[in-house]
Design brief:
Distance between the termini: 23 Å
Pfam families: Cation_efflux, ZT_dimer
Organism: Hymenobacter profundi
Keywords: Ion transport, Membrane, Transmembrane, Transmembrane helix, Transport, Zinc, Zinc transport
Largest sheet: 4 strands, mixed
Subcellular location: Membrane
Number of helices: 9
Protein name: Cation diffusion facilitator family transporter
Shape: elongated
Length: 325
């Protein structure tokens, strides 16, 4: 059995039709810096106003904004870590830090929601007069701060779940602040004290609903699931369609980071003198079609012998035979 290995690590992430090549440094370093600075100042001001103005909605917003500062710091730290060189111990480098940061972020968000929910229930049980004007003023500032920060990350949120986590946090916050302004106005004009905590409940619901996708995707990435946007059956069929390939088995696709994807596969194909050309062509094609930049391919010119523990990747081999025939 002839074995040909090709380890391709192509680091150029920009290619036609996709925007996966996010500069995690440069402009995003500035975006993280601005976002953290502005939000810290705002959290202090908003928390003080919430206590002074007796507003559950403002306090819940301040609590959520504090979790945003933490999440921005986490995402920034992970983006910096991901750029560090690989070492003898960490042979893939620290790229997966971006996945872990995104996961901790999603968990933090839900922890903050739990805290805010507790506060809101307390305010609902013991309603107190709310300073509507102050609430509207602070929330108005919140729309500006969060809207601006979200805009800083908007260009990167399509291709990187780490940046998308930051973007979603900020966008949600801007929308929440809009809700708080409306609530402040209603309380001010109607004097219905129960409106403030009710709006807080609505805000919580919106955040929980909007963040579910982020939580789901980060859990999948941390479990090394095939990244969203890549269909394994399509990858398998694509490999089967390559010249001379009769079988595909031991196909694995997993995320190295929130931006980079790796693939290993065994292809059964008659040995020819053009094997190197074939492998180079495959590397380019995998990047173009699936945005998979790190591929390891083993070529075999005969059907592999099953492993003793049954057959490793048997199911895949059978599927590929069925697809080929």
């Amino acid at each position: 059995m002839a074995h040909h290995h090709n380890h391709s690590h192509d680091h150029n992430h920009s290619h036609g039709g996709h925007t996966h090549g996010i500069p995690a440094d440069g402009n995003f370093g500035k975006a993280f810096g601005w976002g953290i600075g502005l939000n810290l100042v705002f959290v202090v001001a908003e928390a003080a106003s919430g206590f002074w103005g007796n507003s559950a909605a403002l306090l819940s917003d301040a609590g959520h904004n504090l979790s945003d500062v933490l999440s921005l710091a986490l995402a920034w730290g992970a983006a910096l870590l991901a750029k560090r060189q690989a070492s003898a111990r960490y042979t893939y480098g620290y790229k997966s830090a971006t996945i872990q940061a995104a996961l901790v972020n999603a968990a933090l968000l839900y922890a903050a929601l739990g805290f805010i929910l507790w506060e809101t229930i307390d305010h609902l049980r013991h309603p107190e007069p709310v300073n509507g004007k102050l609430v509207m003023l602070m929330a108005g500032a919140g729309i500006a701060v969060n809207g601006f920060t979200a805009w800083l990350f908007s260009s990167g949120q399509k291709g990187d779940v780490n940046v998308r986590g930051a973007y979603l946090h900020m966008l949600t916050d801007a929308l929440v602040s809009v809700g708080v302004v409306v609530g402040g106005a209603l309380v001010y004009f109607t004097n219905w004290l129960w409106l403030d905590p009710v709006i807080s409940f609505l805000i919580l619901g919106i955040i929980a609903y909007g963040s579910w996708g982020l939580l789901r995707e980060t859990v999948q990435l941390s479990l090394q699931a095939v990244p969203d946007g890549i269909e394994l059956s399509e990858v398998r069929q694509f490999l089967l369609d390559q010249p001379g390939v009769t079988q595909v088995h031991d196909l694995h696709v997993w995320p190295l980071s929130t931006q980079e994807t790796a693939l290993t596969v065994h292809l059964v194909r008659p040995a020819t003198s053009e094997d190197n050309q074939f492998l180079n062509h495959l590397q380019v094609e995998m990047r173009e079609h699936f945005n998979i930049g790190h591929i390891t391919v083993q070529l075999e010119d005969t059907t592999p012998v099953p492993h003793e523990d049954g057959c490793h990747g048997c199911e895949a081999a059978q599927q590929s035979v069925a697809a080929a025939s």
